[in-house]
Amino acid sequence: MVINANDVIGTHHILFITFDSLRHDVARAALHAGQTPHLAALLPGGKWEERRTQGSFTLPAHMAFFAGFLPVPSGPDRPHRLFACQTPRGTTIGARTHVFDAPDIVTGLAAAGYRTVCIGGVGFFSQQTPLGSVLPALFQESHWNPDTGPDSPDSTRHQTDLALKALHSRDPAQPLFLFLNISATHTPTHGYLPGATADSWESQCAALAYADTHLGRLFHALPDAGSWLVVLCADHGDAFGEDGHHGHGITHPTVWNVPYAELLLPGRAGDTV
């Protein structure tokens, strides 16, 4: 189904989740192994779409995302974008694209009446340094503490708790833009795989399975608030020794290939905002 963003701005809440460092092949394998049942129930057709990200590490990827440049299909076709910011020229802006007269979509959504909430995440969302404050500063509300960061073994539980608080404290008359950067899938992930001493493809699968258990609570609660536009993706992937590469911030297929999904989730009684 092709979603026309112009039909949902103002009538739907928006949930945007980025799974930090999550490779497409890892997300697909975890799904096929039945490790992510809550994501499986939400994904269109029960599967991820393989796409190419806009940046090889967190900062440039999210700067692009918040400008409306989400991951693109892996093939040569370039469908029109969901969101864009006003520009003199845009070859991927079409009838389905909602164009904001703003420097970024977060500011644009706030101007359209949305309450904007950020829940980090990795260090670029930590607000502990000037650089770590750039992305959170786009939002009206930003949340981060060490318990939600990548070094916390229970980060997704804490992030989900914060998301549910934002959901339950909403003004029923105001649409919500809720953004989460899931840190569990970012290194270190070996703690999620019993007996592992180093991060690997398998340990990232285990980290995603852990994250799914808590995100299920959020997914279950969403329809009570009304109808939603949901966008799920990774910001980039990670190399685990392929062709001698490790980590991200590099030009390698393991980094560029990411899972992606966009969908409309109706309210429990078919309600909009």
Task: Describe the fold and architecture.
With 273 residues, the chain is α/β, with parallel strands linked by helices. It has one domain (15-72, 96-264): 3-Layer(aba) Sandwich (Alkaline Phosphatase, subunit A), CATH 3.40.720.10. The chain has helices spanning 24-32, 37-42, 58-65, 105-111, 155-168, 201-225, 253-256, and strands at 13-19, 49-52, 72-73, 83-85, 98-100, 115-119, 141-143, 176-182, 228-234, 239-240, 246-247, 257-265. The strands form three sheets. It has an eight-stranded mixed β-sheet with strand order 3-2-12-9-1-8-6-7, sandwiched between helices. Strands 4-5 form a two-stranded parallel sheet. α1 (24-32) packs across α6 (201-225). The radius of gyration is 17 Å and the shape is globular. The two termini are 21 Å apart. 46% of the residues are buried. The mean pLDDT is 96.
Which class in CATH terms?
Alpha Beta
Number of helices: 7
The backbone outline, from C-alpha atoms, is: globular
Helix content: 25-40%
In CATH terms, the superfamily is Alkaline Phosphatase, subunit A
Which strand order does the major sheet show? Answer: 3-2-12-9-1-8-6-7
State the CATH topology: Alkaline Phosphatase, subunit A
Largest sheet: 8 strands, mixed
pLDDT < 50 runs, ≥5 residues: none
The number of domains is 1
Determine the strand fraction and express it as a percent band. Answer: 15-25%
Spatial separation of the terminal alpha carbons: 21 Å
Rg, Cα atoms, Å: 17 Å
GO molecular function: arylsulfatase activity
Protein name: Sulfatase N-terminal domain-containing protein
Family: Belongs to the sulfatase family.
Domain Sulfatase N-terminal: 103-254
